[in-house]
Design goal:
It is built from nine helices and twelve strands. It is of the alpha/beta class. It has a six-stranded mixed β-sheet with strand order 6-7-8-3-9-10, sandwiched between helices. Strands 2-1-4-5 form a four-stranded antiparallel β-sheet, covered by helices on one side.
Amino acid sequence: MLTVSRARFAYGERVALRDVSIEIGETALVALAGPNGSGKSTLLKLIARVVAPSSGDVQFMGKSLADWNAKAYAQQTGYLPQDLETSFPMRALDVVVSGRAPFLTRFGFESDADYRQAASALAICDASYLAERYLDEMSGGERKRVFLARVLAGRPKLVLLDEPLSALDIAHAQQFSKLMREIVDRTGASVLFASHDLNWAAAYSDRIVVMQDGSIAADLPPAELMRPEVVQRFFGFEAESVVVNGRPWLVPRVQQ
């Protein structure tokens, strides 16, 4: 479905992506891991068409992003950036229905069908109870569910999420991680998300792609990446590995 081929991008003199190549198939949950500045957010922006590669190519459904009509591409993909403006007093259902904008005519208004689709997206995110609440009355975890529902209201084939687990407490990180898996399984979409939390990235993902200094350093199933010697090599910390429900889980080793 998605193919990134030798993509490069720089912010002025600072190179953010160096000949990055990656493929994402249908119905897949793929995590991007790596330190700050490794290129995770830039890669997501590249795929979301926020920025364009200086060289290389990105293809979606067999067609270069440069050849996609902006509205048509927005109908197929959904992007949730890391930093969201969530302080304005807007009702959750109205936030979510705005995700139907790519499907409206130039001067069209949301129809009853659009609102039904928005309500369905809230239900997928277990957030129906928030429909009449206002953003400035919600917790951070609740707002993230609302904005994820906004993305899903467009019924995209590809969902791009930048650090969706950041600033969430453990309970909400657990719920949101499981929710991403359910989105893939229930809607048939593929989800590519960036995360610093290896344990939650590995808990439900099909693959973990490790980025370092703007390049792909590894692309592995969670069971292969979540081994102490592999984590030491790519992330530079010592850990013990335990298996929980058939999945590896890392416990950082306390230095004496």
